[in-house]
Amino acid sequence: MARVGGYFRSAFNALVAARQLQAARYVNGALLMLDDESLRALGYDRKELQRRSSAFPY
After folding, report:
1. How far apart are CA 6 and CA 32, in angstroms?
2. First-to-last CA distance in the chain?
3. pLDDT at position 9, please?
4. Cα–Cα nearest to 32, from 43, 21, 15, 44
5. Helix (H, G, I), strand (E, B) or coil at 40
6. By C-alpha distance, which of 50, 18, 17 is closest to 31?
7. Per-residue pLDDT tens for 20-57?
8. H-helix segments, 1-58
9. Are 32 and 46 a contacting pair, CB within 8 Å?
10. Most buried of 1, 6, 11, 32, CB within 10 angstroms?
11. What count of other Cβ atoms lies within 10 Å of the Cβ of residue 28?
12. CA pair distance 16, 24, nearest whole angstrom
């Protein structure tokens, strides 16, 4: 017997994953607007942010 709500749970999880990727792209773009000193103070590296932003599908 199939679990009740399995389809909806799967669809919801896919929606959440897509929104998380969208939010990460947005935050990466905003962080890349900062200068290198500010990024360093926040614990980020410009090259790593650029690498992560190119890894996300658009």
Report:
1. 39
2. 38
3. 93
4. 44
5. helix
6. 50
7. 999 988 999 999 999 999 999 999 999 999 888 766 55
8. 6-32, 36-42, 46-55
9. yes
10. 32
11. 19
12. 12
